[in-house]
Specification:
This protein has about 240 residues and is mostly helical. The chain has eleven helices and no strands.
């Protein structure tokens, strides 16, 4: 199949509503969103706590969080594979080669991104906000909610970046999900499979979807940055 034929076939799959292709997209998007929904509360509260609290080993924790951003996803997949395999400590869950297993991988991959971005956003906030809230007798939860609202654009950017990280990874999804058609085949694992078979139409179609998602996420980031600048201007 030539390049032009592959491109025509790809857009045919997209616009004709090919069920196999859109099932792959659905698996990718749904597992990524669920993983982010699970990871976000823990990461946001953890990032806030690390930024605001002084404790022994704080610098080491920050260093580990930042180092985790560079961990290869295939290494995360290997560790999770061993944990979820039949003889692993989580083997009884029977999540290996299943969508819950992929979600676990997405959570582990998203956590460092969300933590690091939230940590940076809270550290960049005006310290007088927390001091003023405390001086007015606000509870710890009230102080946290006030400060997180102030840095909401940074937290939203963290979520968007986390989504981009998890939906575009291939190593962990391949190892933990097994690339099972209709069940655990994601956009990236399907692209890798179709390319290895020399079938480029579906790979190109899925690549177009991935690029569209990337453009949408970057557009959302630009909107958030514009809103952030406008909010600072009004302040």
């Amino acid at each position: 199949m030539g390049l032009c034929d592959a491109v025509r076939g790809a857009f045919g799959l997209l616009f004709n509503g090919d069920p196999v292709l859109w099932r792959i997209v659905w698996v990718s998007v749904s597992t990524s969103v669920i993983g982010l929904m699970i990871a976000a509360p823990f990461a946001v509260m953890g990032g806030y706590a690390i930024a605001m609290k002084e404790f022994r080993g704080r610098r080491v924790v920050i260093w580990l969080v930042q180092a985790a951003l560079s961990l290869p996803t295939v290494l995360i997949g290997l560790v999770l594979y061993m944990m979820l395999s039949r003889h692993g400590p989580m083997g009884g869950l029977q999540w290996l080669f299943s969508q819950p297993g992929i979600v676990v991988g997405q959570v582990v991959i998203a956590l460092p991104v969300l933590l690091a971005f939230t940590l940076a956003a809270v550290q960049a906030a005006d310290p007088r906000l927390a001091e003023t809230a405390i001086a007015h007798g606000a509870s710890s939860w009230r102080v946290m909610s006030t400060l997180l609202y102030e840095v909401r654009f940074g937290v939203m950017a963290a979520v968007i970046s986390g989504f981009g990280r998890v939906i575009s990874e291939v190593g962990c999804a391949m190892m933990v999900g097994g690339n099972i058609a209709g069940e655990t085949r994601t956009i990236t694992t399907a692209i890798a499979l179709e390319t290895s078979k020399g079938e480029f139409a579906q790979g190109i179609a899925l690549g177009v979807v991935l690029v569209a998602l990337a453009l949408a996420m970057n557009g959302a980031m630009m909107v958030l940055q514009g809103d952030a600048h406008a909010a600072r201007g009004r302040g």
